[in-house]
Amino acid sequence: MNAEPTLRAMRPDDGDLVYDIVVDAFTAAAPRARDVPMTHDDAQREANRLRVAHAVGHDPQGCWVAELDGVPVGVAMALVREDLWILSMLMVRGEVQGQGVGRMLIDRALAYADGRSKGLIAASHDPAGWRRYWAAGFRLTPAAMARGTVGREAIPAVEGVREGTAWDYEHCQDLGRRLRGAAHGPDLPFLAEQPGGRFWVSDRPGHAGFAVAFRGSPALLAAESEDAAQRLLWTVLAEAEEKVTFYFVTGAQQWAFDVSFRAGLAVRPGTGLFTRGDVGPLTPYLPNGPFL
After folding, report:
1. What is the pLDDT of residue 220?
2. SS3 call for 87
3. If 172 and its partner were Cys, which of 122, 140, 210, 247 is the partner (CB 3.0–4.6 Å)?
């Protein structure tokens, strides 16, 4: 193979090659990250196809594939929502990690920010990625994760939460602006309407909020108050039929730790959020990893 990688624009039908790189990258990073190797999952593969097509459709200038001698070895996906830049994905195959491919990809992804000072990254466990984000001017907020089977006896009666509709999206966009500095734009309906997704809304005055669940786990939650956030999280957990998992629970989300412990979930150190500029309070908030 040639020594120098090249970049090409990601295509909408690149979902399978992107997924294969993701699995390989996580597996290679698992020993140094002290993590469990990722395994192939047909449902996740299909979700990734939809994710790639969505990202390329809305942010073609932020989505790139790195190749060596025409062979895909790395991918980056960056999104821009109003004044906020988001790194949605940065993955490099194990055999070429540490050879400058990741640096080339993140440099191209950062160029898509086009002068925007605000940025968000939901990091994996890979310490090499953390060093890149820090060097790019991002600062770290450590986070925990919660996982397990919900104790059904712990679920309280919840009032004031209903299933959301497309009519609720606009109000939820305003909530995103207040909590993370930018609306979720097309990502909110994409998440809410994907196969396996559900959308919940609290619209009490002063206690507005929304939550998206994916395959029974909370995938995105934002609220005006901790009371609304807890009611939304309990609603999601009450609907879960299998084990749930959610990540990026920072120290600002004590309300989420309270629900997690009461529900009997195992809470342990997770990864972290990297932020740049004034991205807002980010609380009460549970971000979505790819879309923050």
Report:
1. 97
2. strand
3. 210
Level-2 CATH architecture, domain 146-270? 3-Layer(aba) Sandwich (3.40)
pTM of the model as a whole:
0.90
Rounded-to-integer distance, Cα 262 and Cα 108, Å: 44
Provide the mean pLDDT of the chain.
Answer: 90
What stretches in the chain show pLDDT beneath 50? Answer: 1, 33-34
Q: Say yes or no: do domains 6-137 and 146-270 share a fold.
A: yes
> 213, 236 in Cβ contact below 8 A?
yes
What is the C-alpha separation between 106 and 90, in angstroms, rounded?
Answer: 7
Parse the chain into domains and list their residue ranges: 6-137, 146-270
Rounded to the nearest 10°, the torsion over CA 173, 271, 241, 283 is -30
What b/e readout covers 37-52, taking b as 16+ CB neighbours within 10 angstroms?
ebeeeeebbbbbbebb
Q: How many other CB atoms sit within 10 Å of the CB of residue 284?
A: 24
CATH class of 6-137: alpha beta
Rounded to whole angstroms, the Cα distance separating 198 from 211 reads 8
Phi, psi values for residue 253, rounded to 5°: -100, 55
Residue type, 182: A
Signed CA dihedral, 236, 197, 143, 19: sign only: positive
* Whole-number Å distance between alpha carbons of 211 and 235: 9
